[in-house]
C-alpha cells in the first residue's frame, strides 16, 4: 500500500512561495532545495533581487555555516549570471562575519581582563588587611 503524499508535497511547495520575505528567503530556499522543488528558481530570483539584505540575515549565515555555503553554491548554479555580483557581495559578507568574530573576541578578552583585574584588586585588598 502506498501513501498519497503528493498533495502534502504540493502544499509544502506552495507555502514556501506564498509569502516569501527577506527574513524567510534563506530557509525557504533551503527547504525548496531539499524538496527538489521545481519552483526553486522563483525563490532564487527573489534572493537575487534582495541579495544584500538576504545574505545578512541570521538564517542565511546559519544555514551556510552549517552546510558549507550550500545556499550560495545552489544560487550560483541556478543563476550563473549572478556570479560576478556575488563575488563582491560575498566578500562584504565575509568581512562583516570576520569583523563580528573579532569584535566578539575583543569583548570576551576585555571581560576576561576585567575579571582578572577585579580578582587581583580583591587579593590586594585582602593582603593589606
Structure write-up:
It is built from seven helices and no strands. The longest helix is centred in the C-terminal third of the chain and has 46 residues, at 83-128. It is mainly α and 129 residues long. It has one domain.
Termini distance?
Answer: 84 Å
Number of helices: 7
Name the shape in a single word: elongated
Label the structural class: mainly alpha
Level of helix content? over 70%
| Content of β-strand | under 5%
Parts with pLDDT < 50 across at least 5 consecutive residues: none
Mean pLDDT: 78
- Element-by-element helix/strand order: HHHHHHH
**How many separate structural domains?**
1
The total of beta strands comes to 0
Biggest sheet: strands, sense, closure? none
Radius of gyration: 23 Å
Topology of this structure?
Elements: H1 6-18, H2 25-34, H3 40-49, H4 51-54, H5 58-66, H6 70-78, H7 83-128
Helix pairs in contact: 2-3
Core attributes:
elongated, mainly alpha, 78% helix, 129 residues
Quick structural overview:
This protein has seven helices and no strands. The chain has 129 residues and is mainly alpha-helical. The chain has one domain.
Amino acid at each position: 500500500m502506498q501513501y498519497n503524499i503528493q498533495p502534502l508535497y504540493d502544499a509544502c511547495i506552495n507555502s514556501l512561495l506564498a509569502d516569501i520575505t527577506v527574513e524567510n528567503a534563506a530557509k525557504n530556499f533551503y527547504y525548496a532545495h531539499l524538496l527538489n522543488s521545481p519552483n526553486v528558481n522563483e525563490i532564487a530570483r527573489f534572493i537575487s533581487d534582495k541579495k544584500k539584505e538576504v545574505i545578512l540575515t541570521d538564517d542565511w549565515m546559519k544555514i551556510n555555516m552549517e552546510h558549507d555555503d550550500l545556499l550560495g553554491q545552489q544560487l550560483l548554479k541556478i543563476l550563473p549570471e549572478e556570479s560576478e555580483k556575488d563575488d563582491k557581495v560575498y566578500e562584504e559578507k565575509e568581512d562583516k562575519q570576520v569583523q563580528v568574530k573579532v569584535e566578539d573576541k575583543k569583548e570576551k578578552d576585555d571581560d576576561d581582563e576585567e575579571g582578572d583585574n577585579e580578582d587581583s584588586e580583591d587579593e590586594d585588598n585582602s593582603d593589606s588587611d
